[in-house]
Amino acid sequence: MNIEQLYTGCLAQGAYYIESEGEVAIIDPLRETQQYINKAKAENSKIKYVFETHFHADFVSGHIDLAKKTGATIVFGPNAKTDYDIHEAKDNEIFKLGKITIKVLHTPGHTLESATYLLIDENGKEHAIFSGDTLFLGDVGRPDLAIKSDLTKEDLAGMLFDSLRNKIMTLADDVIVYPAHGAGSACGKNLSKETVGILGDQKRTNYALRADMTRGEFIKEVLDGIAPPPQYFAKNAMMNKSGYSTFESVLEKGNVPLSPEEFEALANHDSALVLDVRHQDDFVKAHIPNAIFIGLDGQFAPWVGALITDIKQPVLLVVPEGRSQEAVTRLSRVGYDNTLGYLHGGIEAWQKSGRDTETLQSIPAKILESKIDDEGTNILDVRKDGEFISSHIENAQHLSLDFINENMNEIDKNKTYHIHCAGGYRSVIAASILKARGFRNLVNVEGGFAAIKETNIPLTDYVCPSTL
Fold first, then answer.
1. Distance between alpha carbon 377 and the CA centroid of its chain, in Å?
2. pLDDT tens-digit profile of 240-255?
């Protein structure tokens, strides 16, 4: 028996490759499926099943393409209804894979079809669970994504309470937990940086698994502090239910080099969004007017999903040398399949063609320190709510990047804003969006709050009520 976690940091997502006696199961695969096929081929094995723990909302899964290419059976839990062929498993249904067994545990709560897959080894021992978004390390899945007219988030939270108590916590403490996500995912609020754990540890340390917790306490605590889901979640879930274009066709269409003339023509006539995915320092120095920055070297795909509201938006890419395929691939993971091509030769080719570029004013935190007491020095903090509450510059205005599109009316185009985040990535994203919407008086603070804390700029720190 061989179990491998194939973890993708940008999505904070874990797919799984399970092999026994030449038979393979893939759990929650990524959109690009060739990696699984190549791995099975190298081991002279055959992919027999593609197990999905639920309809994912934070990424487009590769289950449909993988099944088409290999003949594998797609398995979902009870209540899963799709526009393509699947095996809708029953609760406690058994699947044989070589010498091991995979048992379906229906664990609704995160979604109605959520399933946890219990792996029973060749000796009959319950070895591991693949818990999807039902159980994370340090947290459980958010129960607010499958709300219907007759079903509230409180109803789903109650289902999740029952699933955890009746299906998960009854298992032995030494069972290994393989979750679908780790820290950085928006599918929970308190996920651990660890990506593999032991069930007994979770019973002792995970707030949602407290033995003395009542149903009411669970519902209150699991719903407390959940931010609204990113706008792309519902769209990705629908693609996973209904189907999508093949990854290869998306890559063929999008990974196309374009001359500055071709690039400009598409931008002008197809209303395409120019998405600059280089490092933020490169964007600051020179970028195409009205381009939006979201760098590949940050949480690229989730920020695209959160901030580009039209999932069918035509996209033109400005990429670092040799990374066009990576950019198209990572866009497709969250359902942005309408890439039209990338600027061949990059920003240098654009400039050599005589076309205009713009810069973004950017200053070190030390310069901000010298200006902090000046009248008219407005600070715009674009970190998340919890980051801002923990500590922030005195009198700073807070506008979380997650919801900048909805809350842009809270800032004044006639004022100059010094924008910062934690380290300098999100502030440039925010500034690029604001610039594209007509805000011109913007100054990026290099190094973000980490650099600000090294100065004497006055800060306001959170004081825990229990210490008052």
1. 34
2. 999 999 999 999 999 9
